[in-house]
Amino acid sequence: MNVSTAPPLARLLEPIRDELARVEAEIMRMTSSRAAPLQALLDHVGKFAGKRLRPALTIVAGRMCGGVGPDHHTVGAIVELIHTATLVHDDILDESAMRRRVETVSHRVGNETAVLLGDYIFATCFKEAAALEDRFASRYLAEIVGVVCRGEILQVHHRHDVEMAEETYFRIIEDKTAALYAAALRCGAQLGGASAEQCDALASFGTKVGSAFQIVDDILDLTGEEDSVGKSLGTDLEKEKLTLPLLRLRERATPGDRERFAELVRSHDPENRREILGLLREYDAIESARTTARALVEAAHHELRAFPESAERNLLVQASGYVLARDR
Amino acid sequence: MNVSTAPPLARLLEPIRDELARVEAEIMRMTSSRAAPLQALLDHVGKFAGKRLRPALTIVAGRMCGGVGPDHHTVGAIVELIHTATLVHDDILDESAMRRRVETVSHRVGNETAVLLGDYIFATCFKEAAALEDRFASRYLAEIVGVVCRGEILQVHHRHDVEMAEETYFRIIEDKTAALYAAALRCGAQLGGASAEQCDALASFGTKVGSAFQIVDDILDLTGEEDSVGKSLGTDLEKEKLTLPLLRLRERATPGDRERFAELVRSHDPENRREILGLLREYDAIESARTTARALVEAAHHELRAFPESAERNLLVQASGYVLARDR
Q1: Contact B220, B229 (CB under 8 A)
Q2: Residue B244 located in a structural domain
Q3: If I label B141, which of A112, A141, A249, B261 is the partner at 20 to 30 A Cα–Cα?
Q4: Is A183 touching B (CB cutoff 8 A)?
Q5: Which CATH number characterizes residue B286's domain?
Q6: Could A145 and B37 be called an inter-chain contact, meaning their C-beta atoms sit closer than 8 Å?
């Protein structure tokens, strides 16, 4: 498909608007507390509300595999809140001031409260998952949160590692980002009563699209404008996080440029961002990373071949185009 | 009972040594990972291993209510690891360098990794709980983690609040500390097949003893010696955390001393600790807090009246004496 003409996500999700409204009601229910200071924090976090892409995947997977019931709305809300909790904690890690044009919790009320609030939201997710009739989601989602944390721990571990293998990069983004996309789809399929093959195919679609999403995110952190992306940028370089464009630059550079690149990364000087961007352009490193993201999305489409043509299958294909086209 | 002659906890727990060894094996199993950087972190956290008081409560409650099975060992391990995860996150909050004579995770590898490691351990706990045949523990423990977080959030919210009500203090310590003691006992009873009355009585015992434990902890933070207690002290004053001895001092002080007290608390000057200790002595504020802890333990014993005399009931009584007598 032609990526540059991808319709906005909101229009794509129009056919499942009513289902997403039910997910929203579940999110509101789960983030209610009688303790006023806690409610104030939960209300603030509510302002980060994103595109609800993950619950949309749960709904769509359900529709593709036997239908959507109330548990889909609950699980969609849980998956979204797991994502929210990781964002609250990520902002501590990144020391970011802004997230989706809203002040981060850590910046607003301090790291201590941000740690506790993230923990509280995680606990809420697990409580809600444990209350579902079907026991699958409860076991599986707790495992996935562990995988997400493992990916982030590996990422921190490999910071400053200018020699990090590309294989390690892909393992990290599969764990920290793609695993939750895969989980959103797998839960939706499983709750709909899908076969093991259908569950695996949709999860695999999620892994590939989720990895592509992270690659695009990493590109935007290097090349985007804060105004348009709506969050603090340049944090990867600041933290010496070697993302795919930087790894591609390292692979392609002459020994001299490679040495200069390592120096620039280690310098922590924001002034050097311009020179790094120059090198990225010179070696077509951004384009190389973008090509990999595109290939992942195409491979994801291939996972859908066993499903008959349908509005939902088409929505997944279009949504994956959005992942490539987005500028924020 | 005469508190000053309370036997050491290790001797008290001798009769359930074999059960605790099974809990230990479960903890080892749950904290194994094939990802080497993660395993190194889990090994470091293993060095914090405390007195295993919470799993001991699960075992004892099981024995008092129908017997102990493999699920008791699993739940005991989960409760202990929930406690461990909160410690890893607390050390970020407290910016402490030492915990049980071991360097804290946050001090050793930074706040980012400490946040993620705590999250990973929480996720592991919920995964293990969800895998149990009995669904009670899974739902209940997730709820309790939420309660613990809520208590800590309230505590941070009321910092610098020199006018905090005593009632708020008790709500905070019930949530942040006592809830997990109560949970350890309630799970043990429930898995043993106890009646609702038995479960409630043991949980209530846990709430009261857990609150007493926290009061003693708060006293030690003011009066203890770091060498003997084995963790960073004086952090409550540093953070303007109004604990029970300070609240009692505030209630009893003359208007002039009360004003001086508020000044001293707000000054953040470690040199002022000596003057605050002087005021605490002058108004018998430490002794007043200790009397409340003692009354809570006595009320806890009263909760055990419906259980017949047994070695296990006696162990609970003796363990609660340890809570009062401990100097670390």
Answers
A1: yes
A2: yes
A3: A112
A4: no
A5: 1.10.600.10
A6: no
Instruction: State both tokens at B249.
Output: 């001092």
Question: Positive or negative, the Cα torsion across A217, A218, A223, A229?
Answer: positive
Nearest to B134 by CA among B208, B75, B221: B75
CA distance A10 to B81: 42
Binned at pLDDT 50, 70 and 90, residue B292 comes out as very high
Question: What residues make up the domain containing A194?
Answer: 18-311
What DSSP state is assigned to residue B14? G
- In this structure, is the dihedral angle defined by the CA atoms of residues B221, B227, B231 and B233, taken in order, positive or negative? positive
Return the residue in A92, A149, A172, A176 with the most chain B beta carbons within 10 A, the one to mutate for interface testing.
Answer: A149
User: Where would I find the H helices in chain B?
Assistant: 9-12, 17-30, 36-46, 53-64, 70-94, 105-109, 111-130, 136-157, 166-173, 179-192, 196-223, 226-229, 235-238, 244-252, 255-267, 273-282, 285-303, 311-325
User: Which residue of A32, A38, A138 to mutate against B (max B Cβ within 10 Å)?
Assistant: A138
A187 assigned to some structural domain: yes
B81 part of a folded domain: yes
Residue A92 contacts B, CB cutoff 8 Å = yes
- CA dist B76 and A71 (Å) reads 30
**pLDDT tens sequence across A121-169:** 999 999 999 999 989 999 999 999 999 999 999 999 998 899 999 999 9
- Tokens at A5, concatenated: 């003409």
pLDDT per position as a tens digit, A216-269: 999 999 987 655 555 655 678 878 889 999 999 999 999 999 999 999 988 877
- Per cent of chain A over pLDDT 70 is 91
Average pLDDT (B253-278) is 89
Which residues does chain A have within 8 Å of residue B183's beta carbon, measured at their own beta carbons?
A: none
B33 contact A CB<8A = yes
Dihedral angle of Cα A222, A225, A227, A232, to the nearest 10 degrees: 20
With beta carbons less than 8 A apart as the criterion, state whether A39 and A33 touch.
Answer: yes
Total domains in chain A come to: 1
**Distance to chain A for B130, nearest Cα, Å:** 5
Which secondary-structure segment (H or E) carries A98? strand A98-99
Torsion angle (degrees, nearest 10) of CA A187, A190, A194, A197: 70
Interchain pair A116, B93: CB under 8 A: yes
Asked if B79 and B56 touch (Cβ cutoff 8 Å), the reply is no
The pLDDT value recorded for residue A4 is 47
Question: Mean pLDDT over residues A31-48, rounded?
Answer: 91
